[in-house]
Amino acid sequence: MKALVQGLAERIWEVVAKQRNSVSARYVGGTALGGDAEFPVDVLAERAAWDFLVDSGQSVAVYTESDGLRVLGHRPSHLLVIDPIDGTRGAAADLEMATASIAAARYTNDATIGDVEYAILKEIKSGHWMYADADTPGIESSGYSGDLPRLSSVTDPERMFWSLEFNGHPAQLMIDAYGHLIDASANRGAVYVFCSASFSISRIITGQMDAYVDIGNRLLRDHPNTEADFRRVGHGSVLHLFPYDIAASVFLAERAGVTITDAYGGSLRDTLLLDIGPMNQRSCVAAATPQLHAALLSGIRW
Description:
Number of strands: 14
Radius of gyration: 18 Å
Strand order of the largest sheet: 4-3-5-6-7-8-9
Largest sheet: 7 strands, mixed
Number of domains: 2
Distance between the termini: 41 Å
CATH architecture of the largest domain: 3-Layer(aba) Sandwich
Order of helices and strands: HEEHEEEHEEEEEHEHEHHHEEH
Helix content: 25-40%
């Protein structure tokens, strides 16, 4: 399974690196199963992933962003949860903030993030990768200067380098909740919008960032009357964190010692891997230190 997930990540990266200029860069070509916009580079990566798995001859269950659940062979032991490109907009613009995200768990209909046994993130632009599995301690990586993890020691929200999410999130609602944190940190720290949960979380592991916040799903749960606003900016769909967005990065972050929870401070490990409905979509607050994580949870205006 280690060889399969690492080989799959490598194939996605190779195909996108070689062929991305052959497809339209920023033309929205369709809609993924969960309702997010699908760009031509998504289709390219999805096809590369599926073709690799078919050619591998392995019997596996496969859940991808665009096509949902498919099964190869008979009686597969493992489920692969794949976002071939998490950070499509970054990949479409040929920027760094995009990864191939792959997690593997024992195949059951009620498998959760807590069941993940293998996880890899491979950066679409650079080819750098980080990998961990349940059988081996630590994190394996390639392309980064030095070993991972390298967590920062930042505890002050005014000095944090952090990223947040706007895709599918009504801007005014988000600013009402954490605009004061943006104001406090934009000068002495830094604020980014990467449009990729896996890239954002992985930057905490590399020490480049201190925190990541996506609070949309908590706001929806706390205030059901906001659903119309979320569907308006999601063009009819609720677009919060899907399981395939975070399955690999949560496993890696926990292995690295990142404090990572939903926006209530609860574990993300009970997230079902095969359910993309709004009530199984998640929020996330991740930080390099427990103190910064606590400051974010208490500082956001819920």
